Amino acid sequence: MKKFLMVAAGAAALTATPAMATDTVSITPTATVAPTCTLQAGVRNSPSLGSATNFIGYDPATQTTTTTTAVSEVDLSVAGPRLLTSLTIRCNTINATATFSTTNDFKLKNGASEIPYSLSFNNQTFQTTTTTGTLSSTGGPGGSGFGRSLNFILASAINPINVAPGTYDDTITVTVAPSV
């Protein structure tokens, strides 16, 4: 019997698998996408060219921003709102803030001569140095964005005999930012 136990113990030792330790790691990839907006403007060239436009700002075809300035000639002989540009705003948030500022405090200037004007956008009219408005329903992530008109408004038509000759100008800056 002793021999049998020794043989059985020896056979068990030969067939036993040694215990192995296991290690496990977990990897979690992460990425952060910041809230962002893009702005494209279809700037009307001049009243004499009708609806011809220059597109500036974000180009959805190339997904880049290239030209960011353009000139739009305004007709001083007509009072009331006139289309200056069509803005297309795309954000990965539902809401955004648009800020409008001008170099000459909402005045076309030629030296010391000035012609005051106002702008209207998203049912708001303004004529102060910097104006901010909240925009809703920008389309959110992957949306096509939304378009709004930016209108140039003269309080009354300008009679050329009453103003100095020359080129009158101002620079309007439009900035959009996501609202989270």
Major beta sheet, strand line-up? 3-2-1-4-11-8-9
Number of helices: 1
Based on CA atoms alone, the radius of gyration comes out at 33 Å
Structural class based on helices, strands and sheet pairing:
mainly beta
Q: How many individual β-strands?
A: 12
The helix fraction, in percent, is under 10%
The low-confidence runs, each spanning 5 or more residues with pLDDT under 50, are none
Instruction: Give a short account of the largest sheet.
Output: 7 strands, antiparallel
Secondary-structure element string: HEEEEEEEEEEEE
Tell the overall outline: elongated
Beta percentage is 35-45%
Distance between the termini: 83 Å
- If you average the pLDDT, what whole number results? 79
